[in-house]
Task: structure prediction
Amino acid sequence: MDALIAKVQVNWPAPAYFTLLILTAYFIATHWRISRGWFIGAMVFGIAMQPILHDLTRLYPLAHWLDVHHPRKALNGQPRYWVNSLDMEYKLRGMENPFAHDVAAELGKLPAGSFVLCEAYEEASELAFYLPDHPKTYFAGSYWTDLAVRRRWTQFDLWPDRSLDRSELIGKDAIYVGYAGYAPLKESFESITPLPDIIIKVDGMVVQRMAMWKCVGFKGMKKPAGNGPR
Result:
């Protein structure tokens, strides 16, 4: 029911699947006359949805039509696409190429020791896996001073070697992926220069557009007072 009124994570109900399956089977067996309509309907719906769930790119023509006739408002200066709502796997597409490929190309232009910084922990994790030699990547979202946009703590905040207040990072350059308007990002580098956006396409359709920045002279970054796991 929460999914009808608020954003939920798909793994939240996982512990209930097996126990509720047993309860559902018992209810159907003992209340067949009452439940058979729902049971048959659920079976028909599940079978009908299998081709789409197996390959969510089948919904891309619908997403393209919605983008043309009912475009979504941009968020933080970045366009938003209907495919982001229809394809639950859109964040996983194009991670090796062009995403990691483009970041690696720009990172290679910076001095040795430069690092990768991401607004979201998902991109930081994906780049740690797909970038050549699997370098350490850093997550900046939990450092934002504005509580309305601050990201929740993740494993990146628990690993001491991923902290952004480490002295060995001072003075280094970085490639940043994300929205650059949040404080204290701009105050944490001597300069920030926009790079070409990373555009991920599937079947000729734009799935994601990520902003990428060249950041020079890291000054350090500290978490806001009172910020902790939530």
About this structure: The two ends are 23 Å apart (CA to CA). The chain has a mean pLDDT of 90. The helical segments are 14-30, 32-54, 60-69, 83-86, 95-107, 121-130.
